[in-house]
Every structure is written in structure tokens, then in C-alpha cells.
Amino acid sequence: MVIRVGIITVSDRSWNGERADLSGPALETLINKTDWEVAAKALLPDQIDLIRDKLIEWSDDKALDIILTTGGTGFSPRDITPEATLAVLDRQAPGLAEVMRASSLKLTPNAMLSRAVTGIRGSTVIINLPGSPKAAVENLQAIINVLPHAIQLLHNDPAAEIGH
Q1: Strand-pair category, 66-70 with 124-129
Q2: Claim: this prediction has a pTM higher than 0.90
Q3: Mind giving me the DSSP string for 43-76?
Q4: Residue 24 domain-assigned?
Q5: Which one of 3, 21, 25, 115 is CB 3.0 to 4.6 Å from 14, fit for a cystine?
Q6: Which residues does 33 contact at the CB level (< 8 Å), separation at least 6?
Q7: Cα–Cα distance for residue pair 138/39, rounded to 1 Å
Q8: Is the dihedral of CA 37, 57, 52, 88 positive or negative?
Q9: Which CATH number characterizes residue 105's domain?
């Protein structure tokens, strides 16, 4: 099964050309080491309506299996990626975010400041990741092994019951 992934980098500074987007490419490198496909990429400013609209478009129209956001999950006043994500989710999947934070806490106490959320819209899993390339990759690595099974379940794949 090929898993189709979209990556959205949320960063005012990268959007304005003040710094390069390093997180999106870092996630793409990790995904390219799997049999998954990066089917869509976007760079957006920290603007709730743009993030929300892109999540809806990619979930509903592109029918991506997974959408990864990177950035906008902290305490800064402009960090609104979780709010944009919560606005579009049908159901939350808090276990994924809990594992990401628990894994990160082994590396840095700052992990407890993450407001990242995870959930489902239709048959798409949406995952908020930190804006740091290192942290984004580490967080995705913490949950990457369960995501194919999550996609099988969302697609009602009979193979999903194997191993239960």
C-alpha cells in the first residue's frame, strides 16, 4: 500500500523569505526512505484561515492519507496550527500526540510546551509536528510505525485485522 502524504510548513519567516524552510525538506527526506509518496507540499504563513483551507482541500479533494504540518505548535502568539487543525477534524487521535510528547520529553523538557494535535478528517490523518527540523523528524519517527495500520483501519482494509 502506497501512503500518500502532504507536508505543510507553517512559518511566517519562511513565507516572507527571511529563512529557508528546513523542516518540510527534512520530513520529505524521512518519508522518501519509506515506500510512501510525498504527493503535495505547501509553505504557508501563520494564518488560521489559510492553514484550515489547505487542510480541508488536501483531505477532501486530494484525498491524502496523511497530512503533516510542521511549525506553529508552540506558545508564540502567532502559533495557531493546532487551532486551525482542531477546526477541521472529525475526530481527535490524542494517543499519537501523547506519544510524540512523551518521546520528546526524553530529549528535552521543552517538549511539554508542544500544543500539537493529531486527528482524523474523513480518511486522512492530520499530524501537527514542531517547526524545528530535528524535532519534526524525531516526533514523526516516534509514531511512523503505527501510521500504515491507522490508514488500513481508515480504509476498512481487511488486512487491518491481521495481528489484532
Answers
A1: parallel
A2: yes
A3: EE-S-HHHHHHHHHIIIIIS--SEEEEES--SSS
A4: yes
A5: 21
A6: none
A7: 21
A8: negative
A9: 3.40.980.10
